[in-house]
Amino acid sequence: MGKLRDDIIEQIRPLEMPGCNFKPEDFKDESLCARAQNDGDTFRQAREVIATLATLINRSGNDHILRLAIIDEVRRTHRYLQNELIVCILTALGDLGKLAEDEPGDFSDARNEFSMKVLQKLRKSLRDELFWRD
């Protein structure tokens, strides 16, 4: 496995199962337990948003409507949160492109090859701004 993939999987596991990486003494710290639970809830809610978006794309067959909805909601969002949201999405997409590049058999096939290549180009074009650690 590639380093990025290992790092991402290592970060996902405790979000899927809050507390799975705790040592026995960690359970005594209520704030640590609450944070783990909150992070797990946020992770699950974000995954549900992406799953819902994928379902809408599959059901409607019209990504134009979804793009308009995304634009409309982002423009109504607080400017600081717009920045955070856009950087978060671009970074996640760039990371997905890197995963597809490092391990194409696990992340890409003929059905999504075009989009993975676009994400790889996105990552390369934003190297100075977002992916400077590469």
Radius of gyration: 17 Å
Q: Please bin the fraction of helical residues.
A: over 70%
Q: Roughly what fraction of the amino acids lie in strands?
A: under 5%
The ordered string of helix (H) and strand (E) elements is: HHHHHH
**Terminus-to-terminus distance:** 17 Å
Descriptive notes:
- There is one protein chain.
- By secondary structure, this protein is mainly α.
- It has two domains: about 1-60, no CATH class; about 75-134, no CATH class.
- It contains six helices and no strands.
- Helix 4 packs across helix 6 (about 115-125).
Labels describing this entry:
134 residues, mainly alpha, 6 helices, 75% helix
Short description:
The protein has 134 residues and is mostly helical. The chain is globular, with a radius of gyration of 17 Å.
How does the SSE layout of this entry go?
Blueprint lengths: L2 H14 L13 H31 L2 H14 L2 H24 L1 H4 L5 H13 L9
Helix pairs in contact: 4-6
